[in-house]
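Hi L.,

You mentioned the student needs an example of a multi-chain input paired with its predicted structure. This one should do, with 830 residues in total across all chains.
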Amino acid sequence: MTDLELMGKKAAEAKYRVQELSAREKDHALLAAAEALTANTDKILQANALDIAAGEAAGMREGLLDRLRLTPERIRAMAEGLEQITALPDPVGEVMERFTRPNGLEIEKRRVPIGVIGIIYESRPNVTADAFGLCFKAGNAVILKGGSDALRSNTAVAEVLRKALGAEGIPEDALQLITDTQRSVTAAFMKLDRYVDLLIPRGGAGLIRSVLENSTIPVIETGTGNCHIYVDRAADLTMAVNITINAKTQRIGVCNACESLVVHESVRERFLPVLAEALRARKVEMRGDERVREILADAKAAEEEDYGKEYLDYIISMKTVDSVEEAIAHINRYNTGHSEAIITEDPKAAEKFLNGVDAACVYVNASTRFTDGFEFGFGAEIGISTQKLHARGPMGLKELTSYKYAVRGNGQIRS
Amino acid sequence: MTDLELMGKKAAEAKYRVQELSAREKDHALLAAAEALTANTDKILQANALDIAAGEAAGMREGLLDRLRLTPERIRAMAEGLEQITALPDPVGEVMERFTRPNGLEIEKRRVPIGVIGIIYESRPNVTADAFGLCFKAGNAVILKGGSDALRSNTAVAEVLRKALGAEGIPEDALQLITDTQRSVTAAFMKLDRYVDLLIPRGGAGLIRSVLENSTIPVIETGTGNCHIYVDRAADLTMAVNITINAKTQRIGVCNACESLVVHESVRERFLPVLAEALRARKVEMRGDERVREILADAKAAEEEDYGKEYLDYIISMKTVDSVEEAIAHINRYNTGHSEAIITEDPKAAEKFLNGVDAACVYVNASTRFTDGFEFGFGAEIGISTQKLHARGPMGLKELTSYKYAVRGNGQIRS
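Structure written out for the whole complex:
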């Protein structure tokens, strides 16, 4: 048995204990874990300083260093994240449906934990605490594989959390961190379907693709967003400017940011100059089709590939269409199934867009930036699913559960 | 673009039309398809005769030939299957949840089709019609890949169904059949995640493993069942005999049949002789541990691997335990997450078993044979899921859908 298989086995054993815990026991453990994080701030910062020094020595860019860097405030925020999870209702045990069959069998559909959840993530060490907290509250054991840049920080955080669990009489193996940074170990992790029930990659498109291609564990794809705003012929154009600017520039590096504008021909001439002024003021580069460039002399020509790109930058692509149907077809061709918005005062166009666009979240007259577990009222999220199986859109605690059928009879046999 | 990619593209185009169809339109098309099957009985039988002849020439076993063989009655049953689907409620469009956020955003969680569903199956040609019917009623397009033994039969059935769709003004490409039997094509099908949203393998453990290992499309595992009956110390022993005999012998080749008996030490001496008599009468081979063999002289010694086996045959493994906890641990070690039963009059033991056993369907005092879409009242099923993501247990129409969030605002932006 390899080290990794042993981890899988331990997680699979720990899951039976975690799934039996009451909401009170889980919340108590989460509060103890939060306290332990704060109490061990120095230890975690020391570990983090080594990661930062190694990153600097390797010439890591400032943006990445910033994601990697911990401070007392950021550790406090991690602890608060765990505390906030205790306020969320425990999804485990909920009776989702109950029905009786003509033969007298009483069937109950019960919400149960998934079991063992694997998470592969990149730089940010706070994911170690966040992901553990959500999976644990939903009654699952976790195996985490963080980025090698953050190995020392993640190890320190995981050790603190494990000890806190142990002190509560909960198996420490409810949280395990893979510390072997060899690629072959990550590859083997993706094949650990004997022990791991769900694998969630959190990171860029490359990581997600690699997991999809190599995993034998069921995967939930998260977080790539090529989101569009479609400004319909019946749009309130002031609202359209406000929403586009918000969705594009309020925070550029996030998956629910707008990457592409689709504009109806009949409002092109009135809308684009006003929008462009606001975009220029925020130094957003514009890349448009010919009809856009007729109006906006400073827009670059959009290449075909621009329409499929998640820029995560101060760049926006722009496309002109002649109907809401064409807008829907364009969006369905290039989007990533994340979040799409129509700006319109026409209820028929709105309904057509809501029905026709194939995405987790489809908006009428609101910014795509609302696709978020907190904004949806889920209290927290483990990610935004862009696939259609199991969970779509923001994934909160419920999305980290499965169900089982509990069937009670009095001797029924099948004839 | 390869032929397969072209099929994917066509399916992805057809899905937009299928997802817009009303329940009435879908039901009308299903009835037309059912009628077309009956009307084309001769044509389908001719194609099937060629498959049968080829099978016989290749020395195919009678059991497999029987699965492959069509008769007017079996074609009529296929047609009736489609007719029955029209009686089921359309799941598409159901509002699953609706809530308003403090900022005024109105969020509606709507049930929507999954999109394009791929199904890979083995011998039986009736799956071509059944799988199409269920997926279509749930608003999906399908790409089917049947066994090469049944290629001519499947092609004939698919052609009839496609023409019936076309005559209803529905894109024929809502149903496509892969007719290229090269392994490389099947392998490429499993990687068609650009167009296919869900892949369901229907067949033996080898097929399922191959799909899990090679697919980049989300997969739902179905249909391997190593199901246990646990006879508790507080069991009604007459009921235990009836249920065990039913679950083991009522139909041996199905995934919800019992493969293994677990018996509490304290009832071993009273229960096993009575059960064994009934098993012997039905020519069931018994393979037990030492404590079983002390009682049953004719039981063979069970090897470790017996406990992990889905026999699908007149064989049963038998294991003695000293507690319900040991029974649960034994079952969780060897089961496939399908269906498990406890026979007991003790409510505490029952609840412990219901909570502790990790399986899609857990029974108290009833046969595992009830794990079935019809028996659960779902009207039909596409398979029994043994995984925890998306769907668990019998998968009916609802399990062939996803959801989206439709969000309505009046200009909300994120601050």
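You could point out the following to them. The domain at 3-222+390-408 of chain B is CATH 3.40.605.10 (Aldehyde Dehydrogenase; Chain A, domain 1). Chain B has a mean pLDDT of 96.

Best wishes,
N.
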